Amino acid sequence: MITGDGDALSIGGNHFIHALRRNIDLKIILFNNRIYGLTKGQYSPTSEFGKKNKSAPMGTIDYPINPLSLAFAAEATFVARAMDTEPKNLSTMIERLAAHKGSGFLEVYQNCNIFNDGAFKPFSEREVKEDKMILLEHGKPLLFGKNKEKGIHNKGVLPEVVTLGEKGYTVDDILVHDEKSLEPTLSYILGRLQYPEFPVPMGVFRAVERPTYEELLAGQISTSISSQGTGSLDNLINSGETWEIH
User: Fold this and answer.
1) pLDDT, mean over the chain
2) Rg for the chain (alpha carbons), in Å?
């Protein structure tokens, strides 16, 4: 299933949540350009607060939805993010999404060169991306920067950016990414990191295994047949409350 941020998070918001929470073997790719690009530039559910556009000439007063936070709240078993200008990483994320068994969600930051051109340039441009973006790798410390000299440190319950070698910080003080954790707290925190205070995370936030809706339903049917037999459609129609019409 391929959709835009407006369709998935407003018109289809209910379907988005319940498809993910049920762990249906369904894959959702959401193209997030922070605007309604196909309907001429109105603000969308992911548009930044105060953004001026055709439907909010003085700036939108709606607070934006964080699609990743919504996916975590819905208990999606696979959550990832990619950038349209990073085709190698994007193709890897699509392959991993397709291979996942269960509900999968991939957010793709996509530039809309007509109505919202350059929305992601401040952190995705070649000259700055090493300092403004961070690649998530399972089992590895959350380091970024041209020389991997910066990292994400957990300050109590809040993350902070630190520089290795300053104030005694070493790589041992840096958070280690764990996409396999059944507890999504760390993934949720990473999904909340926003530019310019933090580097923007790209990659797989969460990839856990749970029985799918289809598997659980098939199991219930099999159990029912084993204990009660195959049943009869005629008996089913004529069972329970029935009426005679005279």
Assistant:
1) 91
2) 23
